[in-house]
């Protein structure tokens, strides 16, 4: 029995090592992805187009070498951003090119004053195809201007809660299709001025949707 258990353990270890060496994976019969997908550290291409997947496990974020994720299920949450030591590392996610993502959340575990978070947020700039964006517990003192850029023509929902050190809100008034804007628990903001609307022209229509 002991030999059998040892053999099973060795086989399991062998399978794990073999899967960790995978660089591409394709299947049309998937209904869910296991949490153990985080072990595929060398995976570069994951094709889930035509599958019955309804969600992606958060462990997918640990696949640092992943370059292609076709047929991506449209919601992505990137949490524990406080663990990013070098803000430039966030640029490797290349979020601007992830055009399949429609709903994205960027979250820190708690709000701590740290100016480097501004750079992290800049490097995680989402695709202009994005419909919904949530930024939670951001510790910077201002938001990158790109957040309210009119190129985000598909943005219909923006939620910015619990950003305790921001004194300026992003210029989201020029997001033409924005229908739902949720802002709360941003204590330093005392007044809202032209910077919030994104344009000072009297003829400019703010929040047209």
Give a written overview of the molecule.
This protein is of the alpha/beta class. The protein folds into two domains: 1-73, Ribonuclease Inhibitor (Leucine-rich repeat, LRR (right-handed beta-alpha superhelix), Alpha-Beta Horseshoe), CATH 3.80.10; 74-209, Leucine-rich repeat, LRR (right-handed beta-alpha superhelix). It contains three helices and eight strands, in the order αβββββαβββα. It has a five-stranded parallel β-sheet, with no helix packed on it.
Quick description:
The chain is α/β, with parallel strands linked by helices and 209 residues long. Helix content is 15%, strand content 16%.
List the secondary-structure elements in sequence, H or E: HEEEEEHEEEH
Our count of helices gives 3
Largest sheet: 5 strands, parallel
Radius of gyration: 21 Å
Molecular shape: globular
What is the CATH-assigned architecture of the largest domain? Alpha-Beta Horseshoe
Overall helicity: 10-25%
List unreliable stretches of 5+ residues. 1-18
**Cα end-to-end separation:** 69 Å
The number of distinct structural domains comes to 2
CATH class of the largest domain: Alpha Beta
Structural class: alpha/beta
Oligomer: single chain
- What proportion of the residues form beta strands (DSSP E)? 15-25%
Query: How much is the average pLDDT?
Result: 79
CATH fold group of the largest domain: Leucine-rich repeat, LRR (right-handed beta-alpha superhelix)
Give the strand line-up of the largest sheet. Answer: 4-5-6-7-8
